[in-house]
Amino acid sequence: MSAEQVRYLLPEDAIPTHWVNLLPDLPGDPLPPLNPGTMQPAGPDDLTPIFPMSLIGQEVSMDAEVEIPEPVREAYALWRPSPLYRARRLERELDTPARIYYKYEGVSPAGSHKPNSAVAQAYANREAGIERLVTETGAGQWGSALAFACGLFGLECLVYMVGASYDQKPYRRAMMETWGASVIRSPSDTTEAGRSQASHPTGSLGIAISEAVEVAAGDANANYALGSVLNHVCLHQTVIGQEAIAQLELAGDVPDVVVGCVGGGSNFAGLAFPFVREVLRGNAKMRFVAAEPAACPTLTRGAYRYDFGDTVGLTPLMPMYTLGHDFVPPPVHAGGLRYHGDAPMLCGLVKHGVVEPRAYKQNETFAAAVRFARAEGIVPGPEPAHAIRATFEEAEAAREAGEERVILLGLSGHGHFDMSAYQAYLAGELEDPEFSERDMQEALERLPDAPAIA
Amino acid sequence: MSAEQVRYLLPEDAIPTHWVNLLPDLPGDPLPPLNPGTMQPAGPDDLTPIFPMSLIGQEVSMDAEVEIPEPVREAYALWRPSPLYRARRLERELDTPARIYYKYEGVSPAGSHKPNSAVAQAYANREAGIERLVTETGAGQWGSALAFACGLFGLECLVYMVGASYDQKPYRRAMMETWGASVIRSPSDTTEAGRSQASHPTGSLGIAISEAVEVAAGDANANYALGSVLNHVCLHQTVIGQEAIAQLELAGDVPDVVVGCVGGGSNFAGLAFPFVREVLRGNAKMRFVAAEPAACPTLTRGAYRYDFGDTVGLTPLMPMYTLGHDFVPPPVHAGGLRYHGDAPMLCGLVKHGVVEPRAYKQNETFAAAVRFARAEGIVPGPEPAHAIRATFEEAEAAREAGEERVILLGLSGHGHFDMSAYQAYLAGELEDPEFSERDMQEALERLPDAPAIA
């Protein structure tokens, strides 16, 4: 059976001992975040009200490797190393000479890659004496992950859940509550930020972030936890790519192209950055494809500017592709991808041409997801369905070119809490909402008066 | 980290090559099923209208091992071998000297142990030239598994879903449809059997079985597939216990007690039978605990009699503990356990005192499930929550006795499609419906006039 091996597993002691920090290897000088009041480079003091020092240290570290604390590795062992699959059935279905591998993060208790950072953040906060973490969640994946992680480390957990997802996914909420978290629909009347956004009842990640930051900043025993975008979150996710490198070695393959979906960028970073580093160092050559929704096309259509991470403007300004911090994306089912910006590290790689972004519409991504599910069994989340769609393009291109091509796909999570979206797709009722260039331009006009990026 | 190992994994080539057939090792002479018309022992001719010969052969085989076809092993490789966990966090939470292991079948694409038999049955039917499989589903686990398996082997799939589950779990239906199956709420007006049971709108497994059997028997290109109870289904599930034996060897432990939940018995059989065989052969000594719902207490309160497998009386009569084939259990959330009978092989082991049955109420099982989820991360299905409840009893008994005790728990599936039940539990709105001894007695009076069991 080994000639047809499907899953590549690693033993527990192959859980990485370090995270990969891409910051020192990035092209150009790092662009600092800016204090929203002074527009000067933000320092640790700007972050201490909401983050513990150890995470702030990770945020700005120029060490190429950061050691993973042993209690975090022990928590990882509940599901890591995650499996790498060779998609043999899908390859036959697509009639492609490409060899397709997917790294599956849906085996985590919360069902996505998010716990990789959640357990790291919960541990760091507990060590700092914090009693409660406050966060936001879009699709519910990050909120679930943090609820799970807080349970492991004995912290309280409060989650502001984007209104559209709260309504579409009542069971995500039940899952967070099962792990002991409290969940509030955003925008809510529990914060200034929420009350100011009552005119956007479907909410957005940006609004929910504002609410969570406001609560955390006002409570000395509470901190904030972000599930994507920031350097330390991307850092925590690099266990994914490191394991994939080891698993592909077992398979005897090296990727020609690495494909992942992008919301805030942490999933993409986690899979790709360990490979990107080898490319930046001249040790390897490969392409990187970042797949995003056409309804929220940050990397393909956004402006490369300094902007807030949240809607109301409480966070430091970050250098990134942005649709404008108060742009509210249409309510597509890939709730985890509805974010106006993206991780600064990832944006820099796009700017330098290392990562190629592509945008896909909702129906074509679900078509790809259903085809994937029927071939491989796993029902993917709507977010990685974008990466599956891009993978199909790569596989079809390989067939047309008549070339072998090794594709590594990041399958960041399952779709067990997204079946209403599948239901709508199968019934032909799924919409392809339009991105509004005009709304974006108006949102960009409301950008803070920050220095331009060179 | 190895001193605290949590997951025991096996490589792909450790997928068992044979299923374990307990029939030749069972105490006493095997009791044959009876033809419902003649009350004489049923032969292959009674089964050929709905099952392929290869499965009928497995149903009556007296070989101790049955070879697994290679295409079935290849399908298993999509998720097998499944992980065995040492529940270290739960042990600390329970403050018990017991060592608790759980074998987790929720890693299958359908989320439970059911695909172990579904792929075997889909393959056997495709080899026999069948184009369509018809089945029933209670909790939705079996229907999902068969939908998935039919997808892999290119068969059409029609699922009659028990009304109560159809209403509680719309997303299970969406999952089946995503894999390409058609789903009909039972009782339906598409069959004689369904129309005759319109007065039981919440339905039952027994009614849904009647509908599926009726459709399959009337279509030469279609067969029926049952997800539990029958010998060949129990047979297919024994990959679970065989892997667990190998994984416990890695851990250096042997169970003192094996605990599983019982609906029709296939999950319990799959985990326990490879261990039971060693006990029956005098090679080992251990206890076996079968956990069932107090609302449908087949093994603890049923009569040991010949009875139909379905409500209407289309199937052969089987020797088993039964609450009466037209007993309709209260609609508890553990839909997979709402069955009036149990696998004859398992019933024989209960009768001979090899397996000890215990019944638990709905709220106490959810309390155990939530505690498990907070300690181990995995949110269990309501069915294995019964086994978790029994495991807690064993762990508490070990603490009171001050003895080390090795407990092997069958965690047959996740609860991702059961979050409405968790929601109700957390809100204090979950009921503990009563088993009705009187209804059962009336149902038993309607039993067919079959020979008594010695």
Summarize the structure in words:
Two copies of one chain form a homodimer. By secondary structure, chain A is α/β, with parallel strands linked by helices. The first copy, chain A, has a domain at 75-111 and 232-438: 3-Layer(aba) Sandwich (Rossmann fold). Chain A contains 19 helices and 15 strands. In chain A, the strands form four sheets. The first copy, chain A, has a seven-stranded mixed β-sheet with strand order 1-4-5-15-10-11-14, sandwiched between helices. In chain A, strands 8-7-6-9 form a four-stranded parallel β-sheet, with helices on both faces. In chain A, strands 2-3 form a two-stranded antiparallel sheet. Chain A is globular. The model of chain A has no long low-confidence stretch (mean pLDDT 94). The interface between A and B is large, with 51 and 51 residues.
